[in-house]
Amino acid sequence: MSTPIIRVMILGLAIWTMIQGVTEWRKGPYRSNRLYVWLMEIPESIAWVYGLQILQAPLGVYLLSRYRITFVLNDGSVTDISLPAHRYLVVMKWLNRVLPHAEFEWSQERADRWTGG
Hints:
With 117 residues, this protein is of the alpha+beta class. Helices cover 47% and strands 26% of the residues.
């Protein structure tokens, strides 16, 4: 192949890559995230939200604390996120405002109802 053809091919590939990048950038990094879609497009489908503290202390030496927030939908679908302990209360307060219809905090009765036991 001659040099001009290779240059045109490389230029075409570069333009295509730039278009793909701009398209993905405009969609935003979270549009494909299931939780993002639930919160922004169908928040009424989230039925139950609860948090679980996770302490990491190998050999009794406390290293770090994180929280896992679990989201349960009306149909029983479940997903969760992990976040640092210092952000847990802020996120839960925001979720209480955004999801006034949802139940919060864990209980055995809710676990039986929403996840089938």
